[in-house]
Amino acid sequence: MKKVCVFCGSSMGKDQALVDSAQQLGVSLAQKEIGLVYGGGSVGLMGVIADSVLENKGQVWGVIPKFLADWEVAHKDLTHMEVVVSMHERKKRMYDLSDAFLVLPGGIGTLDEFFEVLTWSQLGLHQKPIYLINESGFYDAAVQHLKHIHEQGFLSKKHLDLVRVKSSCEEAITDWMSM
Fold this sequence. Notes:
The protein is an alpha/beta fold. It has helices at 16-31, 44-55, 66-70, 87-97, 108-122, 140-151, 157-160, 169-177, and strands at residues 3-7, 35-38, 60-65, 80-84, 100-103, 130-133, 163-166.
């Protein structure tokens, strides 16, 4: 079974369209028999996607640090749950379990996860596709900043192109499945 790691918010955000998109992603993953790997939480967009995959008879792998599990934010009904020691171990384990990455809207934690797997790719540690889901223009400023970093000579075109910007999850999944 192919598995995709989804990085996204532990909050819902303010745009209902993003919540609806997260819910639809879960349906799509289950229908396509693509496993979900994610941070193991029951809250925010993370929880929406996991619930949607499970409601549609899909497979979900959660990876959560013990301190977050102790805060009772861990999802209780996942197909597979791993409790790890640290945030770094969480990112490494999610990477190990996944074949591709989707970066949905989120906050600092989401950006941390995105930049970590991007850095690993830049360093040649993996060749897994990384999709930045720019739905509703959420990541417009981030995309512009990456281009600015390139224009200023701090990021090669080759490494800029490691980020596959798509306007929807479905567009990203279609692209990934065609590889």
